[in-house]
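Milestone 3.1: sequence recovery, worked example.
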């Protein structure tokens, strides 16, 4: 199993082997990432996969409803598929304005390049869709925390501490060990925390204990699922 989060250096992955040990690495591209995780039975990635033509995805609305008022803003609307080719923020806003009469959020646009990269890979390699699933770390942390969303923002010291406490309860000393493995890589500490939260959901998926947000048959026009596992 593996949990993956986008980072400055590409994609940060934390993989759990059959012996239970964890290993972390950063891959520059999604293609290199999946090649390195070829043996993983479940890969939970913190990135929108299936994209709507208009409106909000049901899985995003469900995720927001499960989080507290403080954390629901972390689940922003997935970009419309028509916006995927936009290079500039203003272009993406103009496209969404034409379709829905609204501008695109800056948060969603900042992920466009990563969303496009994963989208192209999954459309080109349909077999990858059997093991790659969308996850959302804030939802994973909330369920991990007995249904209670994190109190603090993940980039604040208090937010790092409460997330690390959950991680250490499952994988003692994991963060310190993985940071040594990742020495010299371009990533942030919250990227590692998010990848570990995604891994937690991947483990649940492998055990058949996950929850799935979004209808079972919800797919976009390209046939990609619009669902979140946690």
């Amino acid at each position: 199993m593996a949990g993956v989060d986008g980072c400055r250096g590409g994609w940060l992955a934390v993989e759990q082997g059959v012996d239970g040990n964890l290993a972390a690495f950063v891959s520059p591209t999604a293609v290199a990432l999946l090649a390195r995780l070829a043996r993983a039975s479940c890969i939970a990635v913190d990135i929108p996969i299936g994209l709507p033509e208009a409106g909000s995805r049901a899985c995003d609305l469900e995720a927001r409803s499960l989080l507290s008022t403080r954390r629901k803003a972390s689940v922003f609307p997935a970009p419309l598929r028509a916006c995927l080719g936009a290079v500039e923020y203003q272009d993406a806003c103009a496209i969404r304005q034409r379709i829905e009469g609204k501008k695109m959020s800056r948060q969603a646009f900042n992920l466009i390049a990563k969303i496009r990269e994963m989208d192209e890979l999954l459309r080109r390699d349909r077999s990858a869709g059997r093991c790659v699933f969308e996850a959302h770390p804030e939802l994973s942390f909330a369920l991990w925390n007995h249904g209670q969303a994190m109190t603090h923002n993940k980039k604040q010291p208090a937010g790092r501490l409460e997330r690390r406490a959950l991680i250490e309860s499952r994988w003692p000393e994991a963060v310190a060990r993985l940071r040594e493995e990742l020495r010299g890589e371009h990533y942030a500490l919250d990227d590692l925390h998010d990848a570990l939260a995604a891994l937690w959901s991947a483990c649940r998926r492998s055990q058949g204990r996950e929850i799935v947000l979004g209808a079972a048959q919800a797919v976009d026009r390209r046939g990609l699922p619009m669902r979140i596992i946690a």
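The chain is about 40% helix and 15% strand. The two ends are 14 Å apart (CA to CA).
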